[in-house]
Amino acid sequence: MRENDFIVSKTDLSGRITYGNRIFIEFAGYTEKEILGAQHNIVRHPDMPRAAFSLAWSLIKSKQEFFGFVKNMSRDGSFYWVFTHITPSYSRNGKVIGYLSVRRKPNVSVLPTVGGLYKQMLDIEKSAGPSKAIEASTKFLMDFLAEKGASYEEFVLSLQG
User: CB-hemisphere CA count at 13 Å for 8?
Assistant: First the structure.
């Protein structure tokens, strides 16, 4: 990503894209028509552990914010890293009606660290098998964070700087 870029997208409650700004469309490599109505995981890179998205969904579904590093995949198979902030969107009467995600250029100096952590999580997910993948990978992540003495949010925000 470029230094001053912000990728913005909105989804409904099930993760279908309802809005994507021009920078999102550019990086994703799809047309606006192709993006709107598609599941947001259309840009999910296979290097991303399932547990990372499980954590994101658990936080935003409980009306909390999620911050994290995400490796996305463009339509042509290339990839780009982002630092994302996902938050619930509310109706006027306070009901959650969807989610807003704003992504910016990540601190590139920490991507080898993040990529290495994700690789370990993916390896654990593969060895645990589909039914226990998320549970095993999440446990690994929580143990890793406990060793660091930090919450997930503290850890990722400290990396981003």
Answer: 6
DSSP codes, 89-149? EE-TTS-EEEEEEEEE---GGGHHHHHHHHHHHHHHHHHH-TTTHHHHHHHHHHHHHHHHT
Beta-bridge partners for 8: 102
**Domain spans of the chain, in order of start:** 6-160
Other beta carbons within 10 angstroms of residue 42's beta carbon come to: 16
> Over the stretch 36-90, which tens digit does the pLDDT of each residue have?
999 999 999 999 999 999 999 999 999 999 999 999 999 999 999 999 999 999 9
Q: Distance (Å, rounded) from C-alpha 104 to C-alpha 8?
A: 9
Burial class of residue 96 in the structure, from the number of CB atoms within 10 Å of its CB (0-12 exposed, 13-18 middle, 19+ buried): middle
Looking at CATH, the fold of the domain delimited by 6-160 is given as: Beta-Lactamase (3.30.450)
Q: How far apart are CA 9 and CA 39, in angstroms?
A: 12
For residue 1, pLDDT beyond 90: no
